[in-house]
């Protein structure tokens, strides 16, 4: 059987398993195991186990559970509430100010947690009920949180960037800094669309349920409360700034910086928010362990899947076919973007990166594209997958937060933000310096 036909059969089997609800890791592992046995026989089971464990034994992966622990400590504390309050104080007077402040809170919380689901859940639990209470349309309230949550995998520190760096053997510090300007560019595009959407829906210049007189009476109290909230958040932002400085300055490796950051964020959550009880700490550890094991299992099985494809010469054949396309390099980039977009519709970001990055990187380099610029393009494509069906993880998180909002309203409110991400990709293609200027400036 030729490699292309075999690859199609493997892809159909994988899609079929995921369509019936098989967890991603088990679907990848099961298809890989059957493919290897078919191609090499039962003796290949030895290499299955070796490949599975060798991949996740790399020291660089220690950074993943540490950053997840750091994010869990932040997400389990009232940090998101304090961010929300303080940003509402400064952005509340903009058109659709409350929705805009939620996107700002998502941007900052993304830097603290490094996780899109955590960002979406932490800010959404407070932001969505408040926006609906003040009269914002359900689509605007749900869409801005779902889109803002996607920034968690782009704005550093980002777990997906760590996985890309290890998979492609590129500098994680440089990847982090390459995501800074594009991340805040996307946040700016989200804010602009939010203000337009609120204007179209009838204004929302910081609508409040209280009367004007009552607002005047409470304004000092609100300012004092929000300033205190901002003071509580600043130490966490200081930890993130310290981590980035340590990485960019060459003071520490990503794993060392992540370990120190996790310890400091956990200590700050305990000291600032008085989380002395054993229960909250156990919850933080439990959530960190679950997410870490899930990600590491996906990485291990995705590596076995990549090994199986390579053993059957499927990867090499597809890569050669793409490389042999006699088309303009930007047309090639368009094909790759379309492929990543479709992959993001069905697979979580971690699985897509581990399976595709090593395959696509030689093609990207041969076409004279920068690998760090491409990492940002890849990540934004995967962000789109987080707010589009059929998987659309952030859509279902919003549905869990606000079950009385229909999935249709959540989806329709999120789709304009997906178009903002497409615009962001186009801007990055026209002006690659958006992603490359800052890392070149800082790291040479």
Automatic annotation (TrEMBL):
Alphabetized GO MF terms: transmembrane transporter activity
Coarse class of the protein's main subcellular location: membrane
Location relative to the cell: Cell inner membrane
Transmembrane residue ranges: 6-38, 59-78, 98-123, 135-155, 175-198, 229-251, 257-276, 297-323, 335-365, 372-396, 416-438
Gene Ontology CC annotations of this record: plasma membrane
InterPro entries: DctM, TRAP_DctM
Keyword annotations from UniProtKB, A to Z: Cell inner membrane, Cell membrane, Membrane, Transmembrane, Transmembrane helix, Transport
PANTHER family: C4-DICARBOXYLATE TRAP TRANSPORTER LARGE PERMEASE PROTEIN DCTM, SIALIC ACID TRAP TRANSPORTER PERMEASE PROTEIN SIAT-RELATED
Sequence similarity: Belongs to the TRAP transporter large permease family.
Purpose of the protein: Part of the tripartite ATP-independent periplasmic (TRAP) transport system.
Protein name (Swiss-Prot/TrEMBL): TRAP transporter large permease protein
Gene source species: Vreelandella titanicae BH1
């Amino acid at each position: 059987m030729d490699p292309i036909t075999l690859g199609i059969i493997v892809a159909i089997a994988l899609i079929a398993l995921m369509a019936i609800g098989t967890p991603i890791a088990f679907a990848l592992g099961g298809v890989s195991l059957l493919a290897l046995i078919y191609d090499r026989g039962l003796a290949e089971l030895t290499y299955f186990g070796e490949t599975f464990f060798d991949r996740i034994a790399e020291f660089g992966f220690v950074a993943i559970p540490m950053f997840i622990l750091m994010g869990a400590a932040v997400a389990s504390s009232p940090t998101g509430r304090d961010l929300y309050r303080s940003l509402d104080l400064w952005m509340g007077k903009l058109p659709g100010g409350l929705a805009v402040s939620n996107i700002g809170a998502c941007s900052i919380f993304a830097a603290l947690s490094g996780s899109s689901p955590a960002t979406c859940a932490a800010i959404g639990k407070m932001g969505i009920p408040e926006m609906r209470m003040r009269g914002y349309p359900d689509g605007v309230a749900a869409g801005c949180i779902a889109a803002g949550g996607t920034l968690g995998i782009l704005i550093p520190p980002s777990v997906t960037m760590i996985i890309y760096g290890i998979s492609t053997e590129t500098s994680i510090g440089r990847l982090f800094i390459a995501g800074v300007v594009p991340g805040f560019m996307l946040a700016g595009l989200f804010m602009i669309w939010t203000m337009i959407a609120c204007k179209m829906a009838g204004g929302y210049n910081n609508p409040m349920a209280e009367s004007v007189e009552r607002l005047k009476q409470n304004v000092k109290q609100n300012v004092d409360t929000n300033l205190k909230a901002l003071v509580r958040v600043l130490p966490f932002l200081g930890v993130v700034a310290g981590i980035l400085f340590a990485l960019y300055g060459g003071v520490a490796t990503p794993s060392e910086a992540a370990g120190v950051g996790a310890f400091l964020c956990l200590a700050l959550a305990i000291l600032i928010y008085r989380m002395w009880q054993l229960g909250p700490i156990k919850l933080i550890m439990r959530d960190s362990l679950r997410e870490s094991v899930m990600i590491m299992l996906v990485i291990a099985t995705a590596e076995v899947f990549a090994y199986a494809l390579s053993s059957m010469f499927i990867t090499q054949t597809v890569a050669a076919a793409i490389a042999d396309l006699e088309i303009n390099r930007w047309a090639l980039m368009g094909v790759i973007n379309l492929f990543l977009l479709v992959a993001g519709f069905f697979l979580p970001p971690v699985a897509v990166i581990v399976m595709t990055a090593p395959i696509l990187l030689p093609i990207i380099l041969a076409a004279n594209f920068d690998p760090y610029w491409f990492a940002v393009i890849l990540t934004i494509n995967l962000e789109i997958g987080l707010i589009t069906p059929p998987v659309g993880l952030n859509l279902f998180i919003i549905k869990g937060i606000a079950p009385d909002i229909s999935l249709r309203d959540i989806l329709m409110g999120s789709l304009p933000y997906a178009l903002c991400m497409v615009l962001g990709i186009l801007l990055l293609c026209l002006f690659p310096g958006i992603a490359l200027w800052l890392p070149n400036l800082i790291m040479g």
